[in-house]
Design brief:
Length: about 290
């Protein structure tokens, strides 16, 4: 496996120079960061995806400092969503400064850095997001306009035998069904490659499923669908009376975070069904 990233060729030379300057400035300022997104995916899977931006992952405590350094190198910066994302823009270049995930679950912590993988982006030695954390964060992305399931399949295909499975199971915790759903689909997508998933992992998750089926259902009317899509389960929260799993204590988001994140759905107008407004409090016959 090469330590360089093939999709660099898709980036125009002037933007390439801008990204190099930004990454070198962060290193000179001793800001710990990891490169993720298309560049890390290309390293792990060999899939060359045309991309115009760079995703860097930082500890939440380092977001403000990261944006400050990028601003000093000529980028205009903003804290786009205070619960997970900042942006830095320069011409056609865009750097996403990520410190969590849109659902607030996959927060960057020290473990990301402990298990980082050495790579090379734009000719600069960098640390890449660990494949386990990439799979963890991508597993929840199931929007109408974006579904990262194929990325999850390709990571499993390329790296399944090398994953730190105990750590991955720990990452998902009580959300193990999300992981299990992807592992089941992997056997459908790649029938001849099922050995990529250790048998003990499938047995462990199957036992959890069987145990859960024999337990009494929880009394709490909780909807965890909002962890998978910010848009498609608004009716469950606003119209059907379910509690939003993103809110503390089950999640990490505040009501203000959720309101800001939900309001941004309007920016996706035209990319899905123009008649579908998921923020409205619809009701439907025969349901609650």
């Amino acid at each position: 496996m090469s330590s360089s990233v093939p999709c660099e060729s898709a980036v125009a030379s002037h933007t390439h120079t801008s990204y190099r300057r930004a990454l070198l400035a962060l290193q000179a300022s001793q800001v710990p960061f990891l490169v993720g997104g298309a560049y890390a995916l290309a390293y792990y899977t060999g899939i060359d995806r045309d991309t115009k931006d760079v995703d860097i992952f930082v500890h939440p405590s380092m977001c403000a400092r990261t944006l400050e350094v990028l601003r000093a190198t000529g980028y205009s910066t903003e804290l786009t969503f205070p619960h997970w994302l900042g942006k830095a823009l320069c011409g056609e270049g865009c750097i996403d400064v990520i410190f969590s995930s849109g659902n607030g679950i996959a927060q960057v912590d020290e473990t990301w850095f402990m298990h980082a993988v050495a790579g090379n982006v734009f000719g600069i030695p960098v640390q890449l997001c660990p494949p386990e954390e990439m799979l963890w964060s991508k597993s929840y992305v199931m929007e109408r306009e974006r579904y990262d399931g194929a990325d999850v399949m390709h990571l499993l295909h390329a790296y399944g035998e090398q994953f730190d499975w105990p750590r991955l199971l720990e990452r998902f915790g009580s959300h193990w069904r999300v992981l299990f759903s992807h592992l089941i689909l992997f056997g459908f997508v790649y029938p001849a490659e099922q050995a990529q998933i250790p048998a003990w992992v499938m047995q462990e998750l199957l036992h959890r499923l069987q145990d859960e089926r024999h337990s009494a259902p929880p009394l709490d009317q909780l909807c965890q669908g909002t962890l998978l899509s910010r848009a498609q389960y608004c009716i469950d929260i606003n119209g059907w009376g379910y509690r939003d799993a993103r809110l503390t204590p089950t999640g990490r988001m505040t009501a203000a975070d959720i309101a800001h994140w939900t309001a941004a759905i309007a920016g996706m107008a035209g990319k899905g069904d123009a008649n579908d407004n998921p923020t409205e409090e619809h009701t439907s016959s025969g349901r609650r």
